[in-house]
Design a protein that fits this description.
The chain is of the alpha/beta class. It has helices at 20-30, 91-96, 112-119, 131-145, 148-152, 165-169, 197-206, 212-222, and strands spanning 10-14, 34-36, 48-53, 56-61, 102-105, 123-128, 159-162, 178-181, 226-232, 244-248, 251-257. It is built from eight helices and eleven strands.
């Protein structure tokens, strides 16, 4: 990671709760300053902060300094069944397919699709290139492993791989049945809804995905059976005409089956 990647943008914030050494190590891993909120001269200098609140690692912007914070949510989303394995009758489950066993999520981000894939019973590996998101995901998978139903079923947690998916996919062994891609697309220019807070922050920290075409190409080489691409309904298919598509609300899952 570049020495200056987050300098001026991000700091780790210690608010007086928890082991200060954990905050110090986190700041060292990310190579960002450690700020102490209780110090009389504390003045928000950065746009974003990482801190543990109530035992959960959270990402804050200045607006969230006084409340809440964003964390990877390990609970099922509204409408998802809580049984395990969850039914595969959702558009994402239909796109992945019942014969698929192993999945690589090449663009994990906030991990909501990854966790849905995990709850449907697939064996999952996650790739994430943002060091900030890696820390948030590691914390989430730790919390996931502490859930009673996960422990009672002795489930294998998702594996998290930090780095650039384009480089990592080429060396994956064994090849996964399916590679899942959810690239960041530019927002629709007309009548676009205000982006969710989590995606706004992620975009400000990471920017667009200028290499999504290259990612698709390497994914087609690295997958054993298929590649699934999540796209907003207004976007052109990333890999040309797909083998099939499954539609959700305002989005679709394009499936590219290898011949």
């Amino acid at each position: 990671m570049s020495e200056q990647l987050y300098i001026g943008k991000l700091a780790v914030l210690y608010e007086g709760q928890g082991d200060a050494a954990d905050f110090k190590r986190l700041a060292e891993r990310l190579r960002v300053p450690l700020r102490v909120r209780s110090e009389p001269n504390f003045d928000p200098l950065e746009s974003f902060y990482l801190t543990w609140r109530d035992g959960v690692l959270k990402l804050l912007d200045r607006e969230l300094l006084k409340k809440g914070g964003l964390a990877v949510d390990i609970e099922p989303r509204p409408g998802e069944q809580r049984s395990w394995p969850a039914p595969k009758n959702t558009p994402l489950g239909q796109a992945l397919g019942r014969k698929t066993q192993t999945v690589v999520d090449a663009t994990t981000g906030w991990g909501q699709d990854s966790l849905h894939i995990f709850r449907m019973g697939y064996r999952l590996r996650c790739i994430e290139r943002s060091p900030v998101m890696v820390e948030l995901l590691l914390d989430a998978f730790r919390r996931l492993g502490e859930l009673e139903w996960v422990k009672n079923l002795s489930l294998e947690l998702p594996e998290l791989i930090a780095g650039n998916a384009i480089q990592i996919l080429a060396g994956l062994d064994p090849k996964p049945d399916c590679i899942y891609i959810d690239p960041m697309f530019p927002p629709k220019r007309k009548k676009s809804a205000l982006a969710k807070k989590s995606m706004t922050i992620l975009h400000e920290l990471l920017g667009d995905d200028p290499d999504k075409d290259a990612l698709f190409e390497i994914a087609m080489q690295a997958a054993e059976k298929k590649v699934v691409v999540k796209s907003p309904d207004y976007a052109q298919p990333l890999g040309g005409k797909p083998s099939q598509s499954f539609h959700g609300k305002l989005l679709r899952y394009d499936v590219y089956i290898k011949s």
